[in-house]
Amino acid sequence: MAYILFVNPSVLGAAGMNKGAIFTVTAVTSILGCLLMAFLANYPIAIAPGLGDNAFFTFSVVLGMGIPWPKAMAGVFVASVLFTILSFLKVREIVIDAIPKDLKMAMAAGIGIFIAFVGLQGGGIIVASKTSLVAIGSLTVPTTWLTIFGIFVIAILMARKVPGAIFIGLVATTILGLVTGLIAMPTHIISLAPSMAPTFGVGVMHLSSVMDPQMWAVVLIFLLVAFFDTAGTLIGLAQQAGIMKDNKMPRIGRALMSDSISMLAGSVMGTTPTAAYVESSAGIAVGGRTGLTSLTVAVLFGFSMLFSPLLTVVTDQVTAPALIIVGVLMVSALKEIHWDKFEIAMPAFLTVVGMPLTYNISYGIAFGFLTYPILMTVAGRCKEVNYIMWILFFVFILLLYVLNIVPKA
Q1: Contact in structure between 7 and 322 (CB atoms under 8 Å)
Q2: How far apart are CA 373 and CA 256, in angstroms?
Q3: Spatial separation of the C-alpha atoms in residues 248 and 206, rounded to whole Å
Q4: What is the pTM of this model?
Q5: Where are the transmembrane segments (predicted)?
């Protein structure tokens, strides 16, 4: 999971945020989330800021909608408060259960493709084109080969089932960049963690901006994405650990509350929503079954705070392979979708392709949630559509209207 210490500042830095502050906030938020999971839920599941959420914040909200990052962070804070309240009232569990598994899997896969697309761009492998929108980048650019090298190193290690493959790949790519002179040597390696001052409390100070109707859509999407992000991962990891009992996860309420509290704290400090990390499966695979595993992760994140100077050597070309490989892992969710049923395949497909093609995670989710109830109804399966899905149907119509996707009358 250590890669998030460098990838999160890289992604949020593209939104104009201070990378040093984000490094520290990422570590502190991860420490808090892991400690809560250890002592509150006693699960071997680690928590840290999620990759999909930071990509949505930067590329969809700040760069896509033109909302300044302090204003967008206010939206994250409000969503976090609502999120914590809904988790406490167990509404989160009810809504998650109402979303069909096929759409949940489509959302995970779509975010994976979107993240991989961002990595391909950051690494220079994919570039903009006036004639075809996108095209392959120039292979004569030396830094692009750093990304290609990193992809192959991580892919080979993953295929060999080497623990920590992504982090090892980041280190190897960085070393190659330093040796070849493509990356400047850092002035030092160890130092005290950078101050959180540039981001701490910024969202809270800009709360008044949430009154803007455009921000309602931002709050709603952060709320929805956070809703679905952790639940599926928790259940999958619980199954791997043999924790599930009668198809239910004991203490799931405490686990969700751990995620909610860390998300709220992170929004105050200045980072995007947290999530349970699928990389926790590495710890479970070697015997982790209790909160001692997540406690260990928290301690190691604490030690990691000493290495902030390495941020200068972890460039976009270094982090790009991590984004691409994580995208590959997330796209594996496609196998869980019932592609043989068109009324399911169509909404799932629109969800998956809508995210990268519109460069906006929220639009992909909206496309799926708007088509699913309609196609299920005309297919004679209306009774299988939970009433909550119809509520979300109208919520997303309102969302698209607010985002000016649907022309005003």
Answers
A1: yes
A2: 27
A3: 40
A4: 0.74
A5: 20-40, 47-67, 73-91, 103-127, 133-158, 165-185, 215-238, 292-312, 318-337, 349-375, 387-406
Q: Is 25 helix (H, G, I), strand (E, B) or coil?
A: helix
Alpha helices (H) along 270-315: 280-285, 291-304
Distance CA 398, CA 192 (A): 47
Closest by CA to 359, choosing from 48, 61, 33, is 61
Task: Read off the pLDDT of residues 71-92 as tens digits, 9 standing for 90 and up.
Answer: 999 999 999 999 889 888 877 7
For 126, the enclosing helix (H) or strand (E) is strand 126-129
Could you tell me the residue ranges of all domains in the chain?
4-402
Task: Give the H or E element holding residue 127.
Answer: strand 126-129
What is the DSSP-derived secondary structure letter of residue 406? S
SS3 247: coil
Q: What is the DSSP string of 29-54?
A: HHHHHHHHIIIII--S--EEE-HHHH
For residue 251, give the DSSP letter: T
* Contacts of 247 by beta carbon, 8 Å cutoff, 6+ apart: none
Cβ count within 10 A of residue 81: 16
Q: Which residues contact 159 (CB under 8 A, 6 or more apart)?
A: none
The whole-angstrom separation of Cα 73 and Cα 269 is: 10
Q: Where are the extended beta strands (E) located within 205-351?
A: 274-276
Instruction: Give tens-digit pLDDT for 365-391.
Output: 889 989 999 999 999 999 999 898 998
Q: Phi and psi of 136, rounded to 5°?
A: -70, 140
Per DSSP, 129 falls in state: E
